[in-house]
Amino acid sequence: MTYLCVPIFVRDASQVRRDIASAAEAGADLVELRIDGFDGDARPLIETSILPVIVTDRAENEGGHGASSDRERVDRVCALSDVAKWIDVEIEAFFRLKEPPIAELESKLILSAHDFKGRPERMYTLVNMLTAGHVSKIVWMARSIRDNIEAFEILQHRRKPTIALCMGEAGLISRVLAKKFGAFLTFASLRDESATAPGQVTIHDMKRLYRWDAINPNTKVYGVVAQPVMHSMSPAIHNAAFERVGHDGVYLPMLVNAGYESFKAFMESFLAFEPLQLSGLSITLPHKENALKYLKEKGAEVEELAERIGAVNTIVIDRDSGRLRLSGQNTDYAAILDSITDKLGITREQLKDYRVAVIGAGGTGRTAVAALAHYGATVVVYNRTFERAEELAKEFNGQSGKVVAARMGKLCDPGAPGLQIYINTTSVGMHPKVDESPLGDDPPKFLSDTVVFDTIYNPMKTKLLQHAEQAGAKTIGGVEMFVRQAAAQFEAWTGKPAPRDLMRQTIEARLQK
Ligand SMILES: NC(=O)c1ccc[n+]([C@@H]2O[C@H](COP(=O)([O-])OP(=O)(O)OC[C@H]3O[C@@H](n4cnc5c(N)ncnc54)[C@H](OP(=O)(O)O)[C@@H]3O)[C@@H](O)[C@H]2O)c1
C-alpha cells in the first residue's frame, strides 16, 4: 500500500485539529505534522489525531524552519516517538550526531534527504545510506521531466520502504505515480497554499483529477506534453473519460522544455523505461512540429494530412504486439472540419461549395487552412502579419481548393467577398482579454446561415460569438473543437468510443469555475 499523506505546518492547536479532520475527510491515510516553527507542545495534538502521524522538525537547510541544533531537533521528535507512528530525521543530522537515536527507534525512523537545487550528487551512495532507517526518503528538484525516471528506478530497486519524489512542475508525475511504483507514501497538500514543497498537488486533485484510488502497478500512463502545461484541461477530461469507461490509465501533465533536443530526450527516456507503460501522448505548444520530426526520424507511421500540416498532436504507443510501435496523428484538423460540417449538416466533400475566412496564420490557422483546402473549400486567410498569411496561402493554394491571403483590415469591409464561414484561430478575445474580438466592435454583416466558429474555448462565449449570436448567425465555440480532438485521441489510445458528453461536461464545469 502507498499511503497518501497530508503535510500540515503546525501553527496552533485548533488549526491542526481542523486540518487533520479535513485531511481525513478528503481521504488521507496519514498526516505529517511539521513542528518546525512551532514552540508549543505537539504531544496532545498527536495523541488526539484521528490519523496516524509522522512528526518532523525540518532543518532550515532542507527547506524547513527548524533553527535549533540537530541535537535539539532530533531529541524533540524522538521524545514524541511513543505517540507518533513515524519520526522523520534528515540523514545529515543523523550522521552528525555522536549518538544517533537508532537502536530503540529504528522501526519508526524515516531517514530523509532533500535537495531544492537539483539532483543530489552521489545520489546512489546517498540512497544506500538512507537505508539505515526503517523508511528511506529522497526528494529533489527535478532538473527536467527525465529525473522522474530515476525516482521510479529507486522505487523499483528498493530494499526497504522508500519515498522517492521529484519537486517542481516537472516532478508532478513522480508524486502521482508513486503508487504505481510501490512507494511508501506520497504527499498531497490540503490546499494549494498549504503545500510544503514545490509541485505538490492537492489531495482533492490527487484523488479526483489524477485517479489516485484507481492507480496500480499495471496502470497505463498517458499525458499532455507542453510548456507551460499546468493550465491544460486535458488531464481533467481524459481522466474522467478513463474512469467512465473503466480504462486502467492515468493522464498527467508532462512539462517538457521547448526545443527538439529536449523533446527527443524526453521521448527516448520515457519510451525506454518499459515499466512506465507510456501508452499515449497529446502534444501541444511548442512541440507539435518536434513530434512530427521525431516520429519521422524513428520511421514511425504518420497520418498523411498531419505530415502535410507539419504538426502531430497525438502519439499512439502500442506495445501489445511485444514490439514498440509508434504512430502520429493530427486530431485537430478533423475536429475543425467535423465541427463545421455537423453544424451545417453537410459532408466534408460539400465544403467545396463554401467560402471560408480563416483569421490567423499560426498553428491552428495552418491546420484549418490545410483541412479546408484539402476538401476543396475556397479559403481567404486574414492575419495581422500579412506576410504569414501570404506564405500560408501560397503553400496550400491549388491543392484542391483555392487559398488566397488578404489584409486583416479588409475583413470587415462591406464589399468583402461573400464569406459563409468565419473561423477565428487567433488568440484575440481569449481570457483575460475577453472584451476583444478579431473583428473589432463593428463586425461584418452576418446572415442567418453564416457560420462563425471561434476556436478559443476560454471564455466559452467570446465577444465574436456574442456578436454572431446577436446577428442570428450559427455559432461554434472552441469547446466543440477541444472535445472532438480529445475524443479522437481517446479512441486512438483505448479503442473504445469516447464518452463525449462527459468530456464536454467536464471541460464546461472547469471553465465555469
Ligand atoms: N479549441 C481548441 O481545441 C483549440 C486548440 C488549439 C488552439 N486553439 C486556439 O487557437 C488559438 C491560437 O493558437 P495557435 O496555437 O494557433 O497560436 P499561434 O501559432 O501562436 O498563432 C497565433 C495567431 O494569432 C495571431 N495574433 C496573436 N495576437 C494577435 C493580436 N493581438 N491581434 C491579431 N492577431 C493576433 C497571430 O498573428 P501573427 O502571425 O501576426 O503573430 C497568429 O496568427 C489559441 O488562442 C487557442 O485558444 C483552440
Short précis:
With 513 residues, this protein is of the alpha/beta class. The protein is 35% helix and 20% strand.
Structure description:
The chain is an alpha/beta fold and 513 residues long. It folds into three domains: 215 residues, Aldolase class I (TIM Barrel), CATH 3.20.20.70; 96 residues, Leucine Dehydrogenase, chain A, domain 1 (Rossmann fold, 3-Layer(aba) Sandwich), CATH 3.40.50.10860; 144 residues, Rossmann fold (3-Layer(aba) Sandwich), CATH 3.40.50. It is 35% helix and 20% strand. An eight-stranded parallel beta sheet has the order 7-6-5-4-3-2-1-8. It has a six-stranded mixed beta sheet with strand order 10-9-11-13-14-12, sandwiched between helices. Strand 13 and strand 14 form a beta hairpin. The longest helix is centred in the C-terminal third of the chain and has 17 residues. It is elongated, with a radius of gyration of 27 Å. The model has no long low-confidence stretch (mean pLDDT 94). Bound molecules: NADP nicotinamide-adenine-dinucleotide phosphate. NADP nicotinamide-adenine-dinucleotide phosphate (NAP) binds next to helix 14 and helix 17. NADP nicotinamide-adenine-dinucleotide phosphate binds next to helix 14 and helix 17.
CATH topology grouping of the largest domain: TIM Barrel
CATH superfamily of the largest domain: Aldolase class I
Number of domains: 3
- Count every beta strand, where a strand is a DSSP E run of 2 or more residues: 20
Give the structural class.
Answer: alpha/beta
* Rg calc: 27 Å
What portion of residues is helical? Answer: 25-40%
Number of helices: 18
Strand content: 15-25%
What's the architecture of the largest domain in CATH terms? Answer: Alpha-Beta Barrel
Contiguous uncertain segments of 5+ residues:
none
What is the residue-averaged pLDDT?
Answer: 94
Question: What is the distance, rounded to the nearest whole angstrom, between the alpha carbons of the first and last residues?
Answer: 34 Å
CATH class of the largest domain: Alpha Beta
Query: Describe the biggest sheet?
Result: 8 strands, parallel
Strand order of the largest sheet: 7-6-5-4-3-2-1-8
Distinct small molecules bound, one entry per kind: NADP nicotinamide-adenine-dinucleotide phosphate
Form type = elongated
